[in-house]
Prior knowledge:
The chain is 81% helix and 0% strand. Helix 2 packs antiparallel against helix 4, helix 2 packs antiparallel against helix 5 (187-195) and helix 3 packs antiparallel against helix 4. The protein starts with 20 loop residues before the first helix and ends with a helix. The chain has five helices and no strands. The protein is elongated, with a radius of gyration of 47 Å. It is mostly helical.
Amino acid sequence: MADEPRAAAPGKAARPSRPDYDKHDQEVASIDAEIDRLRKEQDALKERLNKTDTRKGPAAEKRNRLVSRLQEIRTEQSGLRKSRGKVFDRQASLAASIGKNTAALKAQQAKLTYKSTGEIDEAIAQREGQIESGKLRIVEEKRLANEISGLRRARKHVEQTEALQKMIDADVAELAEVDAQLGDTNAQALSEEHER
C-alpha cells in the first residue's frame, strides 16, 4: 500500500509516483549502446576516407588539370581587366572630345550664314562679276568690295568648321574601333568557364 499513489483529496493535486530506477538504467544503457554503435560506424567511415589518397589516381589528375586551367583563366581575366581599363579610358576621352568639339562646331555654325566654302566661293564670284561688269556706281562697288572681304573672312571660319567636323568624324570612327575592341574580347566566355 505504500507504493500505490494516494488518491488526491478534492482540490489537491495527486502526488507523483516514485521513479523506477531499474527501468531508467535500462533506457540509459540502450541509448549508450546506440551511441557506441554509431561512433564505431563513424570511425569506420573516417578510416575509409583517410585510406583514400586524393593526391594520386585519375581523379587527382583531373583535379590538377582543372586547378591549372582555373589559374590560367584567372591570369587571362587579370590581363583583360588591365587592357580593358585602358580601353575604357580611351573611350571616355574620345567621348569627351567628341562632345566638346560638337558643341564648338554648333556654336561656330550658328554664327555663319554660309555652310560650305563652295557657297562662299559662288557668292564671291557673283559679286566680282557685278563689279567687273562696270554698270555699278562707285558706292555700290565699294559696298560689294566690303562684302567680298567679309566673305573671305567668313570662308576662313567655314574652313575651320569643316576641319573641326573632320576631327569629330575621325574621333567617331576611332570610338567605333574602340567599341569593337571591347566586343572582341572573350571575357564573357572566360567568366562562364570560370563559373563552371
